[in-house]
Structures are given as C-alpha cells and as structure tokens.
Amino acid sequence: MLNNTHVNQPPLVEGQRVEFKRQLTDGLEKEVVAFLNAHDGGLIYIGIDDAGQALSLDKLDQLQLQIKDRIKQNISPSTMGLFDVLIERYQDKSIIKIVVARGSEQPYYLRKAGMSPKGCFIRIGSAAEPMPQRMIETLFATRTRNSIGNMRSRNQDLHFEQLKIYYQERDLPLNEQFARNLELLTTEGDFNYAAYLLADDNGMSIKVAKYAGLDRVDLIENEEYGYCCLIKATKAVLEKLKVENKTLATITDSTRNETKLLNPIALREAVINAIIHNAYSREVPPKFELFADRLEITSAGGLPQGFSQDEFFMGYSVPQNKELMRVFRDVDLVEQLGSGIPRILQSYSKDAFYFTDNFTRLVLPFSQTLEATGQATGQATGQATGQAETLLLYCVEPRTTKEMMTHLEVSHREHFRDSLLIPLLDSGQLKMTLPDKPKSPKQRYVTVKQTDDNHD
C-alpha cells in the first residue's frame, strides 16, 4: 500500500543519503540496492535535477505503482517492508520520494546480475559504486539468519480470518497466495514465525500491568492482550492505554486548561514502535507498565548491530521485522518508515530512552498539571517516604546512583533524582563524597547522620 504526503520542505542537498533523479530511469534499482546495503539507508527523489530544482512529473499515481513493482521484482533478497514510495510537494511541484531503509539481509543485489560486483552496490559519497567481492562474501557470511521470516513456525495449522478482515477493511482483500505474497512462508514453503504472530491463534501475549505507586511492589491490574493476530492485540493495547490516558485539568479564574497524562500521538507511536520492532526471535513479547507517575514500555532487543544512538534518534530506519512492518503499513497502523521516533521526540526528550544489549525501554512521564501532581502525590507520598528511609539505611556505606536505584528497584532516573535524591541532599540527610565535583563518575552518596556518628 502506498502513502501520499503533501508537505513543503527546506532546500534539499544531494549527498551520502540523498540522491536526485530528473525522471525514472533504468538505474533506479541500482540506487536502491546501494542504499539497502548502506549503513543507514537513504532517500531518492525523482523529479529534482542535479542543481536541486524541482521538475514537473506526469501520471504520479502510475509512477508510484511502477516504482514499487520494480523494487519488489528486481532486487534480492526481498525488499518488502524496507521502502516507501511517497508523493511530496517541493518548490510548488509534486515529486516522488523513495525512502529506503538499511536491509538486515545484506548484501542486496540486482536479481538479473546476481550476487556479484555487477549486481551489488554500495553508497560512496553521492554515488552508487560496485561492491568489492570480498565485501560481498563477508556480508553474506554474516547475514542475519534468526529473523522471524526465516524461523519456522512450531505450529503449521494456522488460520488467518482476523488478518483477512483487517485487509478487507482497507479494501485490500487477500487471495489464496497471500501467505507467499506477504512473505509468511520460509524458503521451504512452511509458515514462518511472522505467520505465527499474525495467525488467529498463537502463544504470544502482550502484558499491560498497572501499579499503585512508583515501583513494582503494589500490582493492582495485570491484563494480557494476545493469543490472537498481532494486529488485533496491538489495537487492544492501544485502546487500553487510550482509556488509561486520562484528561487532567488546571482551573484558573478565567480558564480551564485540559491536558492528557501522555501525548496521544507520541503514545501511539511508542506502542506500535515497541510491538513492531520487538525481537520476537527470542520469544519475549513487549511489556507495558503503568505507574503513578509514568508509563514504561520495554521491548526485547537493543539497537541493531553497528547502529548508534544518534542514528536511532535521527530517525534512520532499520526494520527489525520487515514482514510485520509491511503488514502494519498495509492496515494503516504505520504511516511511513522512520516516522515513529521523530514523532515521539516532539513531545519527550532523548533521556526517555534506555538501551541495553538485550532490551530497549522508553519511560514516558505523566503531564504535571496541578491536578495531575496532586493525584500522583496522593498515591505515592507514603511510598516515597518509605523509599527515603530505605535509602538512608542503605547509604550507611557510600553508594553510586546506579546502586541506589537498583536497591530500590526503580528505573526512572529523573524521578529518582527529583523526588528522592535531591530532597535528601537539600535536607542534609544525605551528602556527596565529592561535593566539589557533583558530576564526577566517582561520585558517591552517604548518609550524614551515620557518618557523624562514626567520627564521634
């Protein structure tokens, strides 16, 4: 399914990640292959000359379909879920924009030329150059083998009535060849793990937990959404969190200001991003946890190999499950590649993201209107007092921030700092071991009363 957007952009410059073409030419697939094999993908604009001037294009809808078919049919391995073809307004003219993500099954190559320097290309500067044979062999030897597209489903008796309904709602009825067309089969012709996740019945369940306070001690609700088509489970999680995302108000003498606990656009993007990029090959589902002051979203899998945090935050797209990405876009749950993280960052800072080798966690703090603050305080004051007492006992010996958070089983660093650490420092109950170097990596915190007793 193709998406159209109509936006005015700042001046574009051709370079490492951007390619201009006056019109659709025979060299399109070569450029796409180069970006698929690149570190962070790229953008191809059709309808812009080398000087950066937009040109008029005819029959844009037909051109979109032609580009989609050529990329799909003429490049291997499969590119499904790795590109978008869009219409955009630039310099008051309509042009074609092709968004290409870095592929996870490199090297990609022109099907007619095979996996050789004549078929494999890589982006060097602003040009697509033949890939050396040694690089081709190295990439092929390390190609990802544990993708959900290559994993055989443990259950081969799968049914897809729910998936067919979602496609029918988008006026995209599935025919008898849908499993092959949507890449739900292994090379041997068996249902793969992507098919298992999209089937009517499976063993995957997404948990939404709710706690009364600021940690995981007092669980008051634990719902599971799953054992069904992943699309259905995703919609159920979205609906649940929409209900939990209450409207709060601040009333002044003249106005009533309303706001949601969480930004609705960022919330939707965060939920879908966690579900679609989860490392299902580890058979660990994403998890959603509501606390008195925040929502924590945890998904399996860290950053892709060789991918930096800066590239992640810049919106470069590396789909972890391209089969799921394709289906989610078809049913209109995903708009276009690389759009999720920038939308989240419009409302929340980069500090909301936490990465480990095996997991990614996003912590979204609730909005702090007057009523919101009162609500959170009412639920958590007693607990915060208990945490402070626990912390003072623990800090008889000097402790790092990480040690204290681990001891209290809290993961939200900003909340820990603002609600516990700073108040204890300000009250004189806790002090720094290096007061002249507050940001030193060797900084420790120790209970003041206990220290004074030791000197007596």
TrEMBL record:
Taxonomically, the superkingdom here is Bacteria
Look up and give the organism this protein is from: Marinomonas primoryensis
PANTHER family per record: GLPR-RELATED TRANSCRIPTIONAL REPRESSOR, SCHLAFEN ALBA-2 DOMAIN-CONTAINING PROTEIN
Q: Where is the Schlafen AlbA-2 domain?
A: 14-131
Residues covered by the Filamentation induced by cAMP protein Fic-like C-terminal domain = 395-445
Residues annotated as region Disordered?
432-456
Its name, as the record gives it, is: Transcriptional regulator
InterPro entries named among the record's database cross-references = Fic-like_C, RecG_C_sf, Schlafen_AlbA_2_dom, Schlafen_AlbA_2_dom_sf
